[in-house]
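Suppose you are handed a protein chain with no further information: no name, no annotation, nothing but its sequence. What can you learn? This example shows the usual starting point.
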Amino acid sequence: MAADLYTRCMAASEAWRTHLQRCSTCAAEERCPDGVPLWQQFTRLQDAYLTHLRNKRGTS
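A reasonable first move is to predict its three-dimensional structure. Written in structure tokens, the prediction is:
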């Protein structure tokens, strides 16, 4: 599961970064309607992956 979660997180990160480079509306604190779901997916997967690592290491 961890490898799949990591892969999905990295794919979401890449999708967000690609969008951010091409979108003149999106910024660190403000996102366009197309950027919102990309950002949300990335942050959700990143949170899940970091939680997995904390649980694995027993540092939650």
